[in-house]
Design goal:
Length: 365
């Protein structure tokens, strides 16, 4: 039996992070059924309940130290953990965990990382100092691998894989339809799913411009617009801010939806307009036509992986361009779906490679 201690942004009601944890757990256990997991979590009880694994609170430093001592591998499990956009605290926290693992002589893997931006002098000094001591590093796209290189991470070599959540594959649209019906959505009409997140205002507010694009699409297609919050409660508030600017009626999903619920809801959509990174990932996994809005380079990187480009960004959103991209995606839905599923055939084996490499660091059974 082997044990992995996995750290990430878990237990914060973020569907993308929970899906990455689920994808890593599934892929690793398919290769090594004897592996047990403990996650470092913002809400340990929620993580135990949702994933059926052990969990320790991210504020319980003694508990984390003990969990590191029991682990055969300390893994940083996906997402943009190493960044200092808002403050240096998150970056220092995760690098501190890596240092604790080194002190206990445990191998460290940075897995399916989407690194950066790291702009502050302290962060730019600490990242190569600590990450260069890892046993293994994988990046979820080529851009992340290049960011590691620019920050001075040269050993071990960074392997380009894909986002860990992709292992989960397509979701069940029938389950998504049941959830939409329960929320009062008229599923006899085309369903346009929308994912937004809070973001600092640019020169022009995002909300009225996105609202204008959605009003155009709803008017032209007769679609029902449904906002899909990927992180409660933050995205609910951001969604309502857009709805307040719309003329067309829209539904905001608001409730204790799990990552699997939201994967299913997106699978039932006819179109997904997404600002959240993993809303785009969830759509692509199920072959749902999508329109990406960029708020961070990671969105552009994923869209390039699947042969798309962003229709706009938080720095400048053209309602006509977003509506036109939505119209094209709906008009060519079958072709877009087939192309996305072909892209998944290419990316899912790369996502599984994260697990194969991790298993190679574990002791033999």
């Amino acid at each position: 039996m082997a044990e992995i201690l996995i750290a990430g942004y878990y237990g914060f009601h973020n569907a993308g992070d929970e899906a990455m944890l689920a994808g890593l757990r599934r892929a690793i256990r398919e290769l090594r059924p004897d592996v047990t997991f403990t996650a470092i979590s913002g809400t340990a009880s929620q993580t135990r309940r949702l994933h059926g694994i052990g969990a320790v609170s991210r504020s319980d430093i003694r508990g984390i130290w003990e969990a590191i001592g029991r682990a055969d591998l300390v893994m940083f499990g996906g997402g943009s953990l190493l960044q200092d956009v808002t403050s240096s605290r998150s970056l220092i926290y995760y690098l501190g965990l890596a240092t604790m693992a080194r002190l206990r002589r445990k191998p460290v893997m940075f897995c399916a990382q989407g690194i950066g931006p790291v702009t502050r002098p302290l962060g730019r000094a600490l990242v190569p100092l600590i990450v260069n001591r890892a046993a293994l590093i994988t990046a979820r796209d080529a851009e992340a691998a290049e960011t590691f290189r620019r920050l001075g991470v040269t050993r071990p070599p960074v392997t380009v894989t894909a986002d860990a959540a992709l292992v989960l594959g397509p979701a069940d649209p029938a389950a998504g339809e049941a959830l939409l019906r329960g929320a009062g959505v008229d599923v006899s009409r085309p369903v346009i799913g929308v994912s937004v997140r809070p973001w600092k205002p640019g020169r022009e507010p995002l909300e009225p411009r996105l609202a204008e694009a959605l009003d155009r699409l709803a008017g032209e297609t007769g679609a029902q617009v449904v906002f899909i919050p990927m992180q409660q409660v933050k995205d609910v508030e951001a969604s309502r801010a857009v709805v307040a600017c719309m003329r067309a009626p829209a539904v905001v999903l608001n409730g204790p939806y799990t990552y699997e619920d939201l994967r299913a809801v997106i699978a039932r959509c006819d179109l997904l307009i997404g600002m959240r990174y993993h809303s785009l990932v969830f759509a692509a996994m199920s072959g749902v036509p999508l329109v990406g809005i960029s708020y961070d380079p990671k969105n552009d990187a994923f869209l390039r992986q699947i042969g798309h480009e962003a229709a706009g960004s938080t720095g400048g959103l053209n309602p006509a361009a977003v509506a036109a991209a939505g119209r094209r995606a709906l008009a060519d839905a079958e072709k877009v779906r087939a192309d996305l599923l072909r892209q998944m055939d290419r990316l899912i084996p790369l996502a599984r490679l994260n697990a194969e490499l991790a298993v190679g660091l574990l002791p033999d059974r």
